[in-house]
Amino acid sequence: METQGHYFEPPQDSVWPGRASGPKVVAFGGGHGLYATLSALRHLTTDLTAVVTVADDGGSSGRLRQEFDLLPPGDLRMALAALCDESDWGLTWRDILQFRFKSNGEMNGHNLGNLLLAGLWQILDDPVAGLEWMTRLLDAQGRVLPMSTVPMAIEADLEVNGEIQTIRGQSKIAKAPGVVRRIRLDPPDAPVTPQVLQALTSADWVVLGPGSWYTSVMPHLLIADLRKALVRSPARKALVLNLSRQRGETQDLTLPDHLRVLHQIVPELRLSVVIGDPVSVTDIDDLQDAANDLGSQVMLRQISIGDGTPRHDSLRLAAAFKDAMSGNWGDLSSIEVLDNH
């Protein structure tokens, strides 16, 4: 498609001079977990970079990826939606991005934001430039980047009834029964988006999680160059724990085991703080032992929405981030742990 170049010259940066405020934060993840993190962090800073996994192969994203050979747009779209301002403009565009078609035809299930991104990428032939233009259109507070500009697939070795089965595809792994024993990316040596590496060199804080542990949080750590850059980054690093076990993927994984998986994959990684909700923690000592291996302290705060569902509350999580970044972590010995099993 021919376009007039001056209409589609990629912007240099989605954060305009004089607009950024607060600490420089880089948040890694995907899906609903990253949405929760970004919804909280945007209350604290506009100098915010979201780094999104690009291995989704289900739903609207999977269909678009298969038809047009492009990055799966769904998790990137959700990150953009999370960064929309609480103004009429921002809220309207957030709803537009999240709108999903319902019909009896081929459009059924497609998401309007996914289609907008797919169109921008075809016009610009540059996924980062397309995301920058979408960010400017939304007047979003921050920046969204793919961890790689190469679409990826996830493979996992799962132990089922004592036997190892190999499952390929994020959507299948998330629902498969069994215990994940190993996970890998295809291609294993995909290039890291350069802007991601740049963001890590100047970040004040890096945030991992919450989210699907093996398919949204861990994939970022499976690319060697990104793993090295994360470890070497001078930023302080925080990890947000999930509020419940995920059926299939982590149904047999305790919260301390989540940390042990992280330590096993990146033993040289050191965290400053692990943030959890006391209702979700059944053994503080075990959690702190696992955090010790990562050089971290545990900070417990009510970060759930409080209605019994495993959803993070953006304002409570924002308050927890504020405490974490100011070093106000509290004393674990004074916190009562509730057994929710």
TrEMBL record:
Q: Which GO terms describe its cellular component?
A: cytoplasm
Question: Which biological process terms from the Gene Ontology are attached to this UniProt entry?
Answer: regulation of cell shape
Entry-linked CDD domains = YvcK_like (cd07187)
Q: Where in the cell is it found?
A: Cytoplasm
Keyword Kinase annotated: no
| Reported function | Required for morphogenesis under gluconeogenic growth conditions.
What name appears for this protein in its UniProt entry?
A: Putative gluconeogenesis factor
Organism of origin is Mobiluncus holmesii ATCC 35242
Lineage, highest ranks first: Bacteria, Bacillati, Actinomycetota, Actinomycetes, Actinomycetales
